[in-house]
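Async update (no meeting this week)

Hi team, since we skipped the sync, here's where things stand on the single-chain job. The sequence we agreed to prioritize is pasted below, unchanged from the tracker. I ran it this morning and attached the output directly underneath so nobody has to dig for it. Comments welcome in thread, and please keep replies under the output.
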Amino acid sequence: MTTYSKHSSILFDASAAAVMFTCILATGSAVAGPTIEQTPSEVVKFGELNLSAPAGVATLYSRIHAAALRVCSSGRRDLGQLAEERVCAQKAEAKAVQQVNVDALTAYFEKKTGRPVATFAANSVK
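Output:
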């Protein structure tokens, strides 16, 4: 059992030490969106977290949430922009949670937000 846990931990750390997610702010269908080079992104590191423990999952979600808010923030404060930023952050969080692909994080996200990951991830802007 120890060998399996250690192997799984090493494999997990090597394959998922960081999650990168992107978010494109929706600016309307008439305006071209940013190119991939212009798309904001941020790496969220979590290799040191124990994702089999609730505290590790909560910490990772907090990091993802904060990164999504930073990536999606435009600095403008009009109501329309705030609504777009909120949707952007929700999509970015869902995409990151899906990329991590850990059942405990997915369950935490869905409980915290009241929304399934698959709904946002399927609708994410590419």
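Quick observations from my side:
The chain has one domain: 2-123.
The radius of gyration is 16 Å.
Reply here if anything looks off.
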